[in-house]
Design brief:
The structure is a homotetramer. The first copy, chain A, is of the alpha/beta class. Chain A has an eight-stranded parallel sheet with strand order 1-8-7-6-5-4-3-2. In chain A, 46% of the residues lie in helices and 10% in strands. In chain A, helix 8 runs parallel beside helix 9. Chain A has one domain: Aldolase class I (TIM Barrel), CATH 3.20.20. The N and C termini of chain A lie far apart (41 Å). Chain A is globular, with a radius of gyration of 18 Å. In chain A, helix 7 links the parallel strand 6 and strand 7. Chain A is built from twelve helices and eight strands. Chains A and B meet through helix 7, helix 8, helix 10 and helix 12 of A and helix 7, helix 8, helix 10 and helix 12 of B.
Chain lengths: 311, 311, 311, 311
């Protein structure tokens, strides 16, 4: 099963579960994978920025990928392989593709500046990993400091056939989706899947602008699935009602640094992760922050049954 | 009336009203100033980043400041004087202080990197404008790319007596407020006013962490005033209820680039500005974006009477 | 006299002479202007990055420009007008052009990233100052963090007729000159003047690659004039011999921060400036650095008579 | 043999020799190692920024380190282990230390901004690799965009005992050396080795300011050895004469991007490398650049016998 430009729905960005001592928690990996299947996720992305990938060594990364792939053979699994050099990127790609991954995700190194540099980087990366490996283009200027105009994305899509999906997380980004979909309509760019990240902060409008779904790690991925579905069903107000109920917490989780701690904390409270632990170095959550999240969950419980554990 | 560390409440960041042809709309300046007075604003900040200050020449800047000061003599008026050199910064400061401004606001140039560079910059700036002029330290890494740790802010506050207020808009920033208030409690830093910017995205929790209020330009500054007041009265749930009702629109407006267009558009719809025009170069709002804002306003109207014009 | 694409030779980047108390030293301005004329400079650029322009207020800037223009009516005078906003940029441009300037120089704000942003910025700037005003495009990534590919420069030159000169100071930059000259040969770009900055560090090869001369502030601009002349006369070895004799000092002066202090110190020793003073804030030269410059001058004196004052 | 703060002399930064097809050229590794021994190098650094480390996979990196260590058992070998995560950094460190490396070199990730972030990063890195592993602190703002003040370096040295050497390549950097040596004299910092990089562009004065030698990859490392020796012998003019003879070529090689191609080209011409090839992606040298290097070598041959092959 290979990732294609027809991907849609929700590909949660999976955190990597650890025990408090830093060991990988394989039982939680299975539980989390099962959870994604149960909520109607159409794929899953692992070892991304918020999967603490840089804290894993090569063997661990491969083992986690293999476990998720085995556990959910019906689910396309995308693996983050971003690396400072093409040699380790290729090495990891080869191993996870052999293990059954559907494709890989590549973020740009934050030293890229000009349009030319960006396009060339992805050409070289695609050649390095093998032009038969489908890849996801990650467009996240807030974190990577690399600005890709719609024109640059069009060049990448046009010049590199193995680019099949955009992880859209530019900010602001609504017009970008409209522009890219316009390129497709006017025939100047082939269609690609556009799934949205950036914590989901604009998912309500992104799907209305033409995005195919979500590719982010909010602690209620089931809400993301519902919003994508409600939008597809034309139930605009219902989609916004649900989204707005989650927005105070979603906004809180979207904070860089502390966000992953919030995400793991809630997933632990939901019974999916055994521990909220991160591997060192850790951006921990203060007691005040924990109380704020508890308060937000309690408020959410009034509007979404799935948060009733916090009521 | 000079700005002091006792400032609190809401200092809206005022946009600069223009006619469609780019001329300054003085009638709207008066109307906007009156509006701020009517909602209980405790001050106002003009010629900031979102006041299109770089599009104004020196004489225009001085004239706008003078008009607002005359119109609201009971309101402390803070004037943005950030500039690439100390000579124009001093020139503008002197003129607006002579005209009756309460103080000035200084953002860091985006070339500052080390703690030492940041502290020295503010020492030099304070000396340049005159150590008798109270100033607001603007801490907005997302826009200015300058990271100030709490320790650096403490050094600035300690070494420069004329620094009386922090425009807090670091992101994430809740722990920063707690840390700074902790410095005050443990006696290692004198008390300063902390008013929060960043579009108000975390105002609900910022006031709970010890901030004195808001210093931002959301198109419903009256909501900001209410949230600050409700928090002061201990009405936590009510404060959050009101804040959450606005959060979908507030989040939309907080987008860089398009945010100012949204703000001016809503202020025009509210009857405060004659036109939503910006001076060139303009980051315009698409039709799709306008329809999205209209939809958000309509939804807001169900929960806040002040948006009923959009129902 | 307007600046055109036929400019060539050496346009020294003039420092701004101050007395020790920070007052402008007008006698030194005249002496420096006379000196530039006497050595065969074909133009002069004032109020640039190293002219301490941000430390001057508007009136001072205009006065300095007017003085140089009056003193050397036969010399095209280019004035740096870079500013964070188009309003002050236009205001200064209008005044200095009225006073007889030949053109202006515009550096990019360091927030520009994509090709699109860069081209649009220059279009807006050209429109703001008036499309009849010839301008110099400053390409200095090391200082401004803006990367312009040859393709972007071609777009600017093609889309903006009033761009007549490139101040080339990319690093590395030799291939860029070759590429741009190639564009001219293949007819895809009209010819522009290319004068080289970056302290002159590669002037020996830049003129061989097709640059028209130098536009930098090395403390021996007479050497720059000679190197450009010797190259034009086909005396390659002599050009390099002279250049190499100066390279140890030139390299020392090219250091950011301390470089301006070195430049003013040597110009003072050469009798051109009364004082080496800078306006505050100052990047001063230590005693050790001064001794090093003295040593370099002494060594230079053995190979170039013009440094014999240091022997 | 462990690296200590007593290191001095010249640790060349070794390139990684490849054949034209990208395979590692082990014969050239031996020849290069022997060459370093023959010229009096006191150590060697491998797998650094210009050693094309990101193009090597883990096994290749370990094999190269092991080969150099075996070939020169009397020479301390420092291995670059910079990585985006601590897991791969630790993995490589452990293997090369087991193989007999003397220590490792760690560059800062370019996302670090505040003093606090920098110090914390090195604390975490030192803990990750093991506090018994001596490491070299690489201070190269031009490439890594991380600014370390002397005060930050003092904190790192003071708080992390395993930091034994500074690879000094700040620019400008002479005052920094003086400041750090001043800290040692006033007792506020323990002594560390300071070896200078940045292509050697200021080595002539750096050793006079108190640096212990060079840690860079100029294609005539024998010249670096001589300059360090002549300075130690008090032969100032001779040191500068030799340095100045090389400066035109050294400056040419110090250009980012093209520099490595120049270095490998000259080392090939000197008979040390079989090929000047780099692994993809390659920053190639144009024909014009090659002719310029040939010309510089020819000129150098008149002043240094070691370049006579080019005469």
């Amino acid at each position: 099963m290979r990732l294609t430009a027809d991907a849609r729905g929700v590909y949660p960005i999976a955190p990597t579960p650890f025990f408090d001592d830093g060991a990988i928690d394989t039982a939680s990996i299975d539980r989390m994978t099962d959870f994604y299947l149960s909520i109607g996720a159409t794929g899953v992305t692992i070892l991304g920025q918020l999967g603490e990938a840089p804290k894993l060594d090569h063997a661990e990364s491969v083992a986690i990928a293999a476990q998720v792939i085995r556990r959910a053979p019906q689910l396309p699994v995308v693996v983050g392989v971003s690396a400072p050099g093409f040699a380790p990127m290729r090495a990891l790609t080869r191993e996870v593709m052999d293990a059954g991954a559907a494709g890989v995700m590549i973020a740009p190194p934050n030293t890229l500046r000009t349009d030319e540099q960006i396009v060339n980087y992805y050409k070289q990366a695609a050649e390095s990993i093998g032009t038969d490996v489908p890849f996801v283009l990650q467009d996240y200027p807030l974190t990577f400091s690399v600005l890709m105009t719609p024109g640059v994305i069009r060049r990448i899509v046009t010049e590199i056939p193995s680019c099949v999906m955009l992880k859209h997380e530019d900010w602001p980004g609504l017009e970008k989706i409209s522009t890219l979909r316009g390129y497709e309509r006017d025939g100047s760019m082939r269609r690609i899947a556009i799934l949205c990240g950036n914590g989901g902060l604009f998912l309500d409008f992104e799907v209305e602008r033409g995005a195919d779904g979500a590719n982010t790690g909010y602690c209620f991925p089931d809400m993301l699935c519902d919003v994508v579905r409600l939008n597809a069903e034309g139930k605009r107000d219902e989609a916004h009602d649900l989204f707005d109920a989650h927005l105070p917490l979603l906004r809180y989780e979207q904070q860089p640094g502390v966000g992953l701690a919030v995400r793991k904390y809630v997933l632990m409270k939901r019974g999916i992760l055994t521990s909220a632990a991160q591997r060192k170095p850790v951006a921990a959550m203060s007691k005040a922050a924990q109380a704020e999240v508890d308060y937000l969950l309690k408020r959410l419980a009034k509007r979404d049954q799935r948060a009733k554990f916090a009521a």
